Amino acid sequence: MTAPTDFAGLLRQLLSGDVEFILVGGVAANVQGSARATYDVDVVYRRSPENLARLVAALSPFQPYLRGAPPGLPFTFDADTLRRGLNFTLTTTRGDIDLLGDVAGGGTYDELLPASEELPLFGSRCRLATVEALIRMKRAAGRPKDLEALAELEAVREERARH
Predict the structure, then answer these.
(1) pTM for the structure as a whole
(2) What ranges in 3-130 are assigned the alpha helix state H?
(3) CA-based R_g, the chain, Å
(4) Using CA atoms, how far apart are residues 158 and 46, in angstroms rounded to an integer?
(5) Residues 48-95 pLDDT 10s
(6) Cβ contacts of residue 150 below 8 Å, gap of 6+?
(7) pLDDT at res. 3
């Protein structure tokens, strides 16, 4: 079992490293008003060579490793690995993080950017998916847990529309 995720620590590390990313998933839903528990950080990251280098520099101190992979399986967390892959589910010394180059219902960083907003989070400003974008992503994912979260996000949207 991995240690509980240090959401603030992981996000501050990405922000202080000038990594271009958009927060999605459960943490973004929490910031937008959801009360559901979440256990990892999900980010859609820009796949430019410069940003891959910044992402590796930011997360390397936390020893990223493929989540669920057997211990000792060779894995090198570097820009070349990120360039050759797309989506990575990782465990780190600060908890779990999913690096998404493309997300169902949201697309790539550049495609999702217009459906994101910058909000205060953990003493910084962080770019995250809007409620509407989160709803599209949950609907596209279609897993039972996403469909359950969808109802709550739709209620958040309706509540905001009333005010």
Answers:
(1) 0.94
(2) 7-16, 25-32, 49-59, 79-84, 109-112
(3) 15
(4) 31
(5) 999 999 999 999 999 999 999 998 899 999 999 999 999 999 999 999
(6) 135, 138, 139
(7) 66
